[in-house]
UniProtKB/TrEMBL annotation:
A Pfam family the protein falls into: ABC_tran
Keywords: ATP-binding, Cell inner membrane, Cell membrane, Hydrolase, Membrane, Molybdenum, Nucleotide-binding, Translocase, Transport
Uppermost EC category: hydrolase
Domain annotation ABC transporter: ranges: 6-241
Ranges where the Mop domain occurs: 302-369
Protein name: Molybdenum ABC transporter ATP-binding protein
PANTHER family, per database record: ABC TRANSPORTER I FAMILY MEMBER 10
Family annotation (SMART domains): AAA
One example GO MF annotation: ATP binding
GO terms for cellular component: membrane
EC number: 3.6.3.29
Organism expressing this protein natively: Vreelandella populi
């Protein structure tokens, strides 16, 4: 395997080419990930997610490979370079918290803390909501609390990159949702890239900006999450995901009388959401499922649909695994929505590429950014 990665600027960008044989399993991956935000690593069990994470952390050494982070070469097998895990400045949060049982929470947090990190101690403790836990022993923590402490310990090591290996595994629904909210808030406020491993599509959709799809040890796709959710050819690989569109908008008005919030997607298009406490001017990410979009040939009157957008059918496909439905791309100003309808509706309405329609949006889910 050629070891040729273009020299990167001195940022936290991670680039790698690795080749590893693990018994009968062959991992061969090439990635160039963003220098900020969350990159979700998604794929079924056995696709190579954790194996790739261990190579990045330096817990395993590939047969061949090259890897750079922030302009530093962490691995180059041809040149005999292999930076050990403790010198990589990569924080790792495993599925289990792995706290030191004989240290209190405070001791676990400060273990391995770098010289500059004390300035951030209070900030990270507050961010993770663990102020009341500092004097507890690990055995007195719930699963979600222990994971938050483990995340804090990783951050206080001042990493250039944070790896999270299915951190919600084993938690019940309420604890899982609570920790996901903390992690989402965290990833929006820390200024380092995060690689988040999960086989749960909802987790990835809620938290990731970029998505890497692994299949049988190979990178099937790597791009912005919203872009991959629009791709018809990835529908099968993204079977755990609901086909959806991810958009971002700015809060421009609150209708207090009816409990509604108005979100500007661009200069011409707005969505009406259930009322939120998001301040004016703040950004919100919205998720619109393909199945929650209906089409009309003309804007309907006297309807309960609050969100009606004029659109053009820019592309469509009939997928082999779903021959009785039609997947659509709807161009609306500067953005695209993915929609789905039955073959019967497509034929009866006489729809075709380039046609003008009205998109009727049944519901929208959203997260404040």
């Amino acid at each position: 395997m050629a070891s040729s990665i273009t020299t990167l600027p001195n940022t936290q960008r991670l680039a790698l080419q690795v080749d590893q044989q693990l018994g009968d399993f062959h991992l061969a991956a090439e990635l160039d990930l963003p220098a900020a935000g969350v990159s979700g690593l998604f794929g079924p069990s056995g696709s190579g997610k954790t194996s790739l994470l261990r190579l990045i952390a330096g817990l395993e050494k590939p047969k061949q490979g090259i890897m750079t982070l922030g302009g530093q070469t962490l691995l180059d097998t041809q040149k005999g370079i292999f930076v050990p895990p403790h010198r990589r400045r990569i924080g790792v949060v495993f599925q289990e918290a792995r706290l030191f049982p004989h240290y209190r929470v405070r001791g676990n947090l400060t273990y391995g803390m770098r010289s500059l990190a004390p300035q951030r101690f209070d900030e990270i403790v507050e961010l993770l909501g663990i102020e009341a836990l500092l004097e507890r022993m690990p055995g007195m923590l719930s699963g979600g609390e222990a994971r938050r402490v483990a995340i804090g310990r990783a951050l206080l090591s001042e990493p250039q990159l944070l790896l999270m290996d299915e951190p919600l595994t084993g938690l019940d629904g309420a604890r899982k949702d609570e920790l996901l909210r903390y992690i989402t808030r965290l990833t929006q406020q820390v200024d380092i890239p995060v690689i988040y491993v999960s086989h749960d599509a909802k987790e990835i959709t809620d938290i990731a900006d970029h998505l890497v799809v692994l299949k049988a040890g190979q990178v099937r796709a790597s791009d912005k999450l919203g872009a991959l959710l629009q791709r018809f050819d990835l529908t099968h690989e993204l079977g755990g995901f609901d086909a959806a569109s991810l958009l971002e908008g700015i809060v421009v008005a609150h209708d207090e009388a009816y409990g509604l919030t108005h979100l500007a997607l661009d200069n011409e298009h707005q969505l009406v959401l259930p009322g939120t406490s998001a301040p004016m001017g703040s950004r919100i990410r919205v998720r619109i499922l393909a199945r929650d979009i209906a089409l009309a040939l003309t804007p309907p009157a006297n309807t309960s649909y609050r969100n009606q957008l004029n659109a053009t059918i820019s592309d469509f496909a009939i997928l082999p695994e779903a021959p009785y439905t039609v997947e659509l791309h709807l161009r609306i100003g500067t953005f695209v929505l993915r929609a789905r309808l039955t073959r019967k509706s497509w034929d009866e309405m006489g729809l075709k590429q380039g046609m003008q329609v009205t998109a009727l949006i049944r519901s929208v889910s959203f997260n404040a950014l």
